[in-house]
């Protein structure tokens, strides 16, 4: 311990100056001096190391350090997990598990399609009102395989999700169709819910919804909605807000009778009703089509068994989504076949979506045989179908976009023979699956990519284009804003 | 952008060779050389058709100075541009022929000027001169090493000039300086490869170079100096972490755990936060020297403040204050933590204890003139051509007479705001005081100040001897208070002036008319952390005409908005602002701005280079979008280790 004797000098407002016998000068806070002290007083200061306090401080600092490590140095971001929720001819809905960031901060979450940046999901994009952690991707080509990946960019690094391969459906595969009849929808006297349900079952579509979701592809109505009905019918409004085509029930019947997805153009509520006459729901036609459907289904399933081996091993990721959406996947009339299938292939390895799409008989067999000869004929046929699908996704309000999409889709169609040809031949498909992105998918992918670019810069899918329109409006407002203030002031 | 005749400024010499001679004389002046040395100098001797000889010079920054041959090639480019027809010289058509041209660069490590001189038609000579003006002779190995040193010296100047002047908008006050992007000019290799390759050879000498003043008065150490700072900036901008880490790990073998300070910093600034946090934690056990421990604690404190954890930040900075109470930075973080916690009392008390007298000595690196070329005392003439390769009317054709007129008629209330002149540490703590007044309001701040600090009338009261009991009580109360430091008192006065202008504008009493007046109002609001008001003021001013200062401040506000509430609209606003600033810089011969690169890195990460390119193409003339592509987007495409998406 050190003990010093000091003489107090002039006491200032907050500092006093103390001097020692050997001429040290020490500035000392007045507040720490005894009250009675004045100039000339002598004080003694004892100085001693406070080991106890020192130890306490050190321990506290240590515990703070451990706290910091535990809070910010141990829980990192995790790789995102991407799954398929639904696919149709021209769109798909993908879903991801809740993003785990740990102590890190989110910089961005970006969707990549075919290895190219497709959409910034976070931050900034107004998330689709219908789905958190899920996203609908429209404007895809019919019967083409796409690869999707998420990139999670955080303050602790970049993390890629699994790669999700999605094969869009053929025109004849209607398993992606997801129809909604809202609780307030008045179907009128011509058609019943049961008729719609039975028709959907027959075409292998998803079970009828009574609530619009991100997966919804068509909304049913029988009267041209007015403003009042948008106000009172919540589901109708949601369908309209999300650019889901609102069609007459006869559209489902048409799909059933034509055995392929048909364009919605003739089935809008303001379309010429004379086109509907061929597609009325009748008791007789229901019975007739049922038997035809069963025969087809058998053929489909037979094919499916043959093809199963390929996707099962090569595309394991697609197994995941099946778990999450089991209720949608098994149409009732397919149950017996399904059971067989499930025995042959353990559990959920074969995604419902992929099996039928590769196997639809009418398409695949002729294509295989005419590969060298009359392939141009195929092209023409596909083309016609595609033009209709382009409209499937669009409602009248966005007609301007159809013209923008059409030429692009035609280009895709021209590429079509190459891709289908390779898909049918088992050997090349196998090899492409194994080494990921080898030559074949690349040529195939060039067309969807080109399509993407045009979309980003011009129109886009119906969803994002409407977003773009509001954005443009906003920008105009921004330009006026400062000026307005200026004139006010 | 390729070099062109109208993108080269020139200063006319009284006699040929004057500038280089003056420079050599000034090398003995420590104020002129400072830590990093003067910017590079180019001198030209040319004659007209009557064989009359003219000497001229200009400054240059950002070139690759690692190789005299590369420098000679660049000098020949300059000659070609100067001799291109037609030649305009002070408004007249002339026909100059270049006789010789020289390039001089300061080597910080060997403390010497290195000159490459090209005589036409073709000889090249190199020479080295020390501070005393004595010629030096180097052997071959020494010469090679000297050019490596020159390279590092150049990069330190190029980047630190931007870093240290960032708060003031990187204003380059020496207009006759041609500034290249130092990260794009690598002759043989990319600049980041070369810098990271040479760094280990000089790491041990880093402390000699001096240290940046952006950390207040932290002392120059192995890990806190211009060399390390430049490395960190290069790695951050070029995303070269994978190249840098193995090099630092190798250095760790020789220099020990101190290297962890640099590595942790690289982690934290390159999206490897988790690793950074762990490394700081482990290194605090390994490193016992208080100065180095404080460097670690500052990294930790900054991280915690950025992660909105003032409670833990307070603990980290308090420890820093305990260990190095003379250092500005730990106190600064301590105050920030208190403010974030809403503890205004302790915020004010610790503000008052900041070691400002020590901290204010640090000086920013700035470009300097060899000869006075400014204002009325100018001894030489300036030739400042208007680059015609990029035209964006509102920016490149801004009438400087108009701007000068605005200065003449500006409202004196706005012009005399002293807080605008605060520099460095004073500027930063003023910001803190503004933050407190924003939370507390002026009245309550004054009340709190009176509770904590001794006011003048109380001081007077103390002088008269207190007789009565009640007076004694008062005296005791007063004795518990502290003296308010004089600089702190002054800041309160500046704050009062700013607040008055702000409220006068809000009430309509003050009506800004010109862009300059709007700008001064905007700057006042900006200082007061009233960013929304500041944005309106800057935008109003920019409606009338372009202003680089307003644009840069607006850019900062947009970046804040983008961070708190990201949207594509803001991205597009940022792009538009950056494009105009890029044109402005180009008009003044500067192709490099770290502010622009930092701003655009956020947008490019968001949108990808192609999209940004398209947005610029669709909104601006072709020459402008080419400039923006060459100066900004090309950097993200080619020089950032494929970090950014197309």
From TrEMBL, chain A:
InterPro entries: BRCT_dom, BRCT_dom_sf, Chs5_N, CHS_Export/Cell_Fusion_Reg, Fn3_2, FN3_dom, FN3_sf, Ig-like_fold. Residues 169-269 form the BRCT domain. Keywords: Golgi apparatus. Residues 466-476 have a biased composition (Basic residues). Residues 455-465 have a biased composition (Low complexity). Residues 296-330, 339-366 have a biased composition (Acidic residues). Pfam families: BRCT, CHS5_N, fn3_2. Residues 293-372, 410-476 are annotated as: Disordered. Residues 77-175 form the Fibronectin type-III domain. This is Chitin biosynthesis protein CHS5. The lineage of its organism: Eukaryota, Fungi, Dikarya, Ascomycota, Saccharomycotina.
UniProtKB/TrEMBL annotation, chain B:
Transmembrane segments: none annotated. InterPro entries: ChAPs, TPR-like_helical_dom_sf. Pfam families: ChAPs. It comes from the Eukaryota. One of its GO terms (cellular component) is exomer complex. One of its GO terms (biological process) is Golgi to plasma membrane transport. This is WGS project CCBQ000000000 data, contig 00058. It comes from Kluyveromyces dobzhanskii CBS 2104.
